[in-house]
């Protein structure tokens, strides 16, 4: 490769670094793809050229992994592995890294058995080359433990997690980022065994380490990695709090994380977007659409600034936000109908509100959500009160059909609807007799 090309490659590498530091992984990948074209044009006969290509492909794959484009990331890492095996063989640290990254993608795709297999291949290679207490070996034990946990193999996972923690404590002492990771991993195992109090205590220990690490830096020149680790640990605690039924404390913590990210990074940043997204997801799980819509609106503004109005991710979010707003509209129509129904005033007006809600749901969905079942149940109640028993049975049947499809026959709400529907059918039969 000529000096000019080498100079260009170095310049492009600097651009990649800047984009990645600022969280703009898509722009970084555009530059990496340009580097890949240059690499393929130059020195195709050189034995080192495929290895340089593998390095670029690996960088692209890592950025795709960060962007959540897992299938394309997997494709890139499989190409990297093929090159590494051909040029460097199985017993090579870079080959081990290729296996590791494939495992990381498979883990994100919830293919935990295959992810475990890839991690174990990487682990076997590194154990043959590096000391057993080497950081890279310990990290792979940690990754294997996570895949075991996700397969429900809690005993095996716990054994590995304890080994990892002991190794990290021996190497670094307690106040170290990798020890934080171990405490979080053990907390996850404890929560999976319904030992929520113990899990929260473990996460609090991890948070304490993160705070001490920041204090050791003096506060002014905070290390970004330590900041990110504190955020990740707080996010984990927020999830545990929600799982434990303490939604108010969970949301309070998520708002604190959002404030931290905004103060550190500003409003327009991918990690600030992530903090808003965590809030939106939490509100969505709790059925609080207003707050979820507010958070998603903030995310939309961030994406418009970072990616532009016409970017696929911006368009996707805009569509999703519109769906949520219309779902909220349907819920409002249903609530208005319920108010009229409970007031026993104009039941025809209540039906109009309920029908307006159904019109929104039918316009939005091919397969109606369970919220629509509630509307049909309200219509059934009103129709029966008006003396239109057959119409009430028809609406009840629609509600039952939705609940069976969305929740299954064994769900408590489905069983309740089945019982109510049988009661209406029995009433109809008695009237005919």
From TrEMBL:
Instruction: State what protein this is by name.
Output: Kinesin light chain
Which Gene3D superfamilies does the protein's record reference?
A: Tetratricopeptide repeat domain
SMART domains in UniProt: TPR
Which Pfam families has this protein been placed in?
Answer: TPR_10 (PF13374), TPR_12 (PF13424)
SUPFAM superfamilies found in the cross-reference section? TPR-like
InterPro entries documented for this protein: TPR-like_helical_dom_sf, TPR_rpt
Which UniProt keywords are listed? Answer: Repeat, TPR repeat
Start-end of each TPR repeat: 54-87, 96-129
Where on the tree of life does the source sit, at the highest rank? Eukaryota
Identify the species of origin: Cylindrotheca closterium
């Amino acid at each position: 490769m000529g000096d000019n090309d080498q100079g260009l490659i170095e310049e492009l590498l600097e651009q990649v670094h800047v984009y990645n530091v600022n969280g703009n992984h898509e722009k970084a990948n555009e530059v990496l793809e340009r580097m890949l074209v240059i690499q393929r044009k130059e020195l195709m006969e050189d034995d080192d050229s495929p290895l340089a290509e593998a390095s670029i492909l690996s960088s692209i794959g890592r950025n795709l992994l960060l962007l959540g484009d897992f299938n394309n990331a997997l494709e890139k890492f499989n190409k990297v592995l093929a090159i590494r095996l051909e040029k460097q063989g199985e017993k090579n640290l870079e080959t081990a890294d290729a296996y590791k990254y494939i495992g990381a993608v498979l883990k994100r795709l919830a293919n935990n058995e295959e992810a475990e297999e890839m991690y174990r291949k990487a682990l076997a290679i590194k154990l043959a080359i590096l000391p057993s207490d080497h950081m890279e070996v310990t990290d792979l034990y940690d990754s294997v433990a996570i895949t075991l946990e996700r397969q429900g193999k809690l005993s095996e996972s716990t054994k590995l997690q304890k080994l990892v923690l002991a190794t990290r404590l021996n190497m670094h002492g307690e106040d170290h980022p990798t020890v934080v990771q171990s405490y979080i991993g053990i907390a996850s195992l404890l929560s999976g065994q319904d030992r929520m109090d113990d899990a929260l205590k473990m996460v609090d220990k991890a948070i304490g380490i993160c705070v001490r690490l920041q204090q050791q830096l003096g506060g002014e020149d905070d290390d970004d990695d330590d900041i990110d680790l504190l955020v990740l640990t707080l996010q984990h605690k927020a999830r545990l709090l929600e799982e434990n039924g303490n939604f108010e404390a969970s949301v309070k913590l998520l708002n604190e994380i959002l404030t931290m990210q905004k103060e550190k990074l500003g409003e327009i940043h991918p990690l600030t977007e992530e903090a808003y997204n965590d809030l939106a997801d939490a509100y969505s799980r709790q059925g609080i659409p207003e707050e979820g819509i507010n958070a998603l609106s903030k995310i939309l503004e961030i994406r418009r600034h970072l990616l532009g109005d016409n970017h696929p991710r911006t368009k996707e979010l805009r569509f999703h936000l519109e769906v949520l707003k219309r779902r909220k509209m349907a819920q409002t129509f249903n609530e208005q109908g319920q108010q009229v129904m409970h007031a026993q005033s104009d039941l025809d007006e209540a039906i109009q509100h309920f029908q307006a809600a159904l019109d929104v749901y039918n316009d939005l969905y091919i397969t109606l959500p369970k919220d629509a079942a509630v509307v049909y149940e309200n219509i059934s109640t009103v129709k029966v009160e008006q003396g239109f028993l057959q119409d009430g049975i028809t609406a009840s049947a629609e509600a039952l059909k939705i609940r069976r499809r969305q929740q299954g026959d064994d769900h408590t709400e489905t069983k309740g609807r089945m019982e109510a529907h049988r009661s209406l059918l029995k009433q109809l039969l008695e009237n005919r007799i």
